[in-house]
Amino acid sequence: MPSTSLSFADRAAHRAWLTSQAGLPRGFRAGAAAFEFVPFEVEKPARMKLALLTLDAPTGAFAAVFTRNAFPGAPVLVGRRRLAEPRLGAVLVNNKISNVCAPGGVEASERLCAEAAGLLGLAPSEVLPSSTGVIGWRLPLEAMSEALPAAVASLQGSSILPAAEGIMTTDLYPKVRRADLPGGASIVGIAKGAGMVEPNLATMLVYLLTDAPVGRAELRAALAEAVDQSFNAISIDSDTSTSDTVVALASGAAGPVDREAFRAGLLRVCRDLAEDVVRNGEGVRHVMRVRVRGAPDATAARQLGKAIVNSPLLKTAVAGNDPNVGRLVAALGKEAGARGIALDPSRAQLTLGGEVILEGGLFQLDREKERRLTAHLVAAELYPQAPAPDGITFRPPIDFPRHERAVEIEVALNGGPGQAEVLGADLTHEYVTENADYRS
Amino acid sequence: MPSTSLSFADRAAHRAWLTSQAGLPRGFRAGAAAFEFVPFEVEKPARMKLALLTLDAPTGAFAAVFTRNAFPGAPVLVGRRRLAEPRLGAVLVNNKISNVCAPGGVEASERLCAEAAGLLGLAPSEVLPSSTGVIGWRLPLEAMSEALPAAVASLQGSSILPAAEGIMTTDLYPKVRRADLPGGASIVGIAKGAGMVEPNLATMLVYLLTDAPVGRAELRAALAEAVDQSFNAISIDSDTSTSDTVVALASGAAGPVDREAFRAGLLRVCRDLAEDVVRNGEGVRHVMRVRVRGAPDATAARQLGKAIVNSPLLKTAVAGNDPNVGRLVAALGKEAGARGIALDPSRAQLTLGGEVILEGGLFQLDREKERRLTAHLVAAELYPQAPAPDGITFRPPIDFPRHERAVEIEVALNGGPGQAEVLGADLTHEYVTENADYRS
After folding, report:
1. A42 pLDDT tier (thresholds 50, 70, 90)
2. Whether B54 is catalytic
3. Alpha-carbon distance A300 to nearest alpha carbon in chain B (angstroms)
4. Of B42, B338, B429, Cβ closest to residue A240
5. A98 touches chain B (CB under 8 A)
6. I need a labelling partner for B234 at 20 to 30 A (CA). Which of A21, A268, B274, B376 fits?
7. How much of chain B is helix, strand and coil, in % rounded to 5?
């Protein structure tokens, strides 16, 4: 899936690479501002960031895909309305609080859009809002209003990196990916991921900017296709957030582009960002990549792949560098049995790290192979597990991705034309630490 | 769900209660034997137990329900055949290795049944085999054969407790439940649970013995109904094992019973065992009980309940005694959205520990309520989290259940007649420790 095979020796090297990717397409500006506030719901002060992405001229060529969660956040409700508007000129994003089912949530979102619009010389309906963070809390409207001018003042036309940092919550590092298209246009995307990432988007916010002159309908079709093949094929913990949003904006400031090259570029940026989101998932020490083929159809293939990457028992085994392939088979068999997906064990072939582990309905294991499987898991580890200093609080020792390797799982079922590729992650002490104590 | 509200001050008190429950119904004997062996697949010696349950006279009144996993273990394949046999006289269970997709697995199971039958004076087809443990390894046939006479020699007619201990893997304590029926008959059940427990059974082995004079057809109908309302409504980690088995045997040695009383008793024993299995799930510090009503139908209600207890983000929050109710709403909304279950947020009411947390589409939270919600979580904790001595290896400090309290979640959707009750558990450092390093 990844279009790159990068490795970084340290944070500085990763930072230099991010900077090299972050140049804004023509016609866009980006910025962010941070501030402190005290939430209504708890007494401890919290820190919030407001990020802004703006167009030099509002555009009709915009597209967005939102969560299918039945309790969508207020910004998602507002964002869905925006899809019918003639033009969009800015995106306003806050982290820390997701504004879901909060009293007056939609009004709060709209008020912030109107205030930002006032500062930017736009109509309120030309601003799309996004919020991510704690579900259930109310936005600190006054504090956010006060911080808006600083966010506007931070706008600049050279780099998207400050905005990529502004939308982070528990992300360890910002995520920026780009595609440079023949003819001079580019697509630059940023993502905020971390936890609560599963099918049909995640507590995942993604913004894709391009100066390619594509129309609204074309952009919307290309985005729907790219999202299905990227963000809908990943899962960190099977949870789908109430705030998932992917937005694409086209300024049209560059010269003409080939339609196929544009679609391919958009898909590549989305896939790269999707993998970045998994690799920087909360507590992730191993990325798992599952390729399923020979399933009855593509839907079944994706379901089986997701079942494998979502199996807590397999995820914990991978965390421990334990090639407990029985759990892989159990997860596959559970999903097939539960969904009534035809699966003939005697025709299936499973591999892990290129080693055949099951064939003809029988495990193919020996002590030497177990050692090679363990070595594959160790090589895919982003960092080795270290004891928590206080015995409870596990923190990743790095804030950059060391490499783009993954635990490679292949499932060949020889039962039809369906195939899929799914990305997931292990389940670690770092994940539990992060999520047992995220709010406080 | 629990028919009891027990609490135990220490292991000895729990042990005394277990002993009081463990009297065998008339016509049964039970026993177990332990031994060491070296697995083919790894070099480290391992310990296995063989447990035996026998009838004084083989019975035609037996029933069994097996996993729906598409990779069933060899004993499940053999067990399904046994359902067509005229009589059953014994059940032979081993822990440590589950005999799934192992070369010669079915032959190994049958050979052990034949050897046990020889020692017990039964036909080979009158012995039902069960195996639980590591998936992918082969049974140590010679070592098991050698241990069989000791298992037969251990048989006695007074207590099922040795067998309940014999089938344990990572269980912290044996699970025994009983129902004494009017007229003198009884139903006594044992369960082995721990991890890999989800819908449609688990790495869960359950054996139910009764001296009630019920026929084969009646027993099979009653068991199917009881399993659906108990073991199919629990989930520790959403994984369904390749070996799940529930067996019921009736000796007919007691006087006549009322049919309804028998069905109710069987259901109660199954529900109590199901809750025991969750409470003693791997690394479980909180049991979660979700009651859903007002769903379009019972299936939807159970799906929504399972989605809540299976949300890793909610499970980790509960582990941390953090009433992060936003994650509860996110999990509910995700499932409804993904499955197309009609759900009107404005008609939903959600409570946690009896406190209304969402109503009319809006969260109902304040600082005082947050404190009460936290207190509810703390009260439901089986033991407080303690730092791992080595910073990595978390172990439960108790091997008995302190109480039968649960985190109580109620979801009222006002959208139909469907209701369900689902049990699940939190996701803790103890779970990760247990499962990242179970085999070695």
Report:
1. confident
2. no
3. 14
4. B338
5. yes
6. B376
7. 35, 25, 40
Question: The sheet that has A355-359: what strands, in order across it?
Answer: A362-363, A355-359, A349-352, A407-412, A287-295, A418-425
Considering the domain boundaries, does residue A16 fall inside one?
Answer: yes
Residue of B68, B434, B435, B440 best to disrupt the A interface, most CBs of A under 10 A: B435
CB–CB of A71 and B333 under 8 A? yes
Q: With an 8 Å Cβ cutoff, are B343 and A70 in contact? A: yes
Place of tokens 């397409």: A25
Domain count, chain A: 2
Mean pLDDT along residues A97-103: 88
Tell me which of B259, B279, B299 is where a domain ends: B279
Residues 6 or more apart in contact with residue B20 via CB below 8 angstroms: none
B225, B353: one domain: no
Task: Summarize the confidence of residues B357-372 as an average pLDDT.
Answer: 92
Q: B367 touching A, CB under 8 A?
A: yes
Closest CA to B131 of B157, B161, B101: B101
Catalytic residue among A203, A245, A351, A433: A203
Distance from CA of A38 to the nearest CA of B (A): 13
Sign of CA dihedral A257, A259, A262, A264: negative
Question: What length is written for chain B?
Answer: 440
| Domain harbouring A172, CATH code | 3.60.70.12
Of the residues B233, B248, B279, which one is the last residue of a structural domain? B279
Coil, helix or strand at residue B148: helix
Residue A381, token pair as written in the block: 């580890």
Mean pLDDT value across residues A351-355: 97
Query: Does ipTM surpass 0.90 in this model?
Result: no
Residues A232, A99, single domain; the answer is: yes
Using the predicted structure, report yes or no on whether residue A197 has a pLDDT greater than 50.
no
Q: Provide the chain A residues 24-63 that lie in CB contact (below 8 A) with chain B.
A: 41-43
Hey, are the CB atoms on A41 and B365 less than 8 Å from each other? yes
Chains A–B, number of C-beta pairs less than 8 Å apart: 263
Q: Is A360 on the interface with B (CB under 8 A)?
A: no
Phi, psi of B377 (to 5 degrees): -65, -40
Single-letter amino acid, residue A103:
P
Judged by CB atoms closer than 8 Å, whether chains meet at B101 and A136 is answered as: no
Q: Hey, what are B423's tokens? A: 């049990």
Residue B315 sits at the vertex; the CA angle it makes with A196 and A407, to the nearest 5 degrees, is 55
Domain assignment of residue B292, yes or no? yes
CB-based burial, B388-413: b 16+ in 10 Å, e otherwise: beebbebebeeebbbebbbbbbbbbb
Taking CA–CA distances from B332, the nearest residue in chain A reads A70
Four-residue CA torsion sign, A130, A132, A136, A140: negative
- CA neighbours within 13 Å on the CB side: how many for A303? 19
If asked whether residues B138 and B33 sit together in one domain, one would say yes
SS3 at position A176: strand
Confidence of residue A439 (pLDDT cuts 50, 70, 90): low
Cβ contact B69–A101 (<8 Å): no
CB B421 within 8 A of CB B1: yes
Is residue A3 included in any domain, yes or no?
no
Q: Which of B97, B335, B358, B363 to mutate to test the interface with A (most CBs of A within 10 A)?
A: B363
State the catalytic residue, choosing from B67, B169, B203, B433: B203
Å from A216 to nearest chain B CA?
27
**What local confidence, expressed as pLDDT, does residue B100 receive?**
87
CB-based contact, B296 to chain A, within 8 Å: no
CB B222 within 8 A of CB B182: no
Shared-domain flag, residues B259 and B353 = no
- Dist. CA B315–CA B17, nearest whole Å: 30
| CB-based burial label for B85 (10 Å; 0-12, 13-18, 19+) | middle
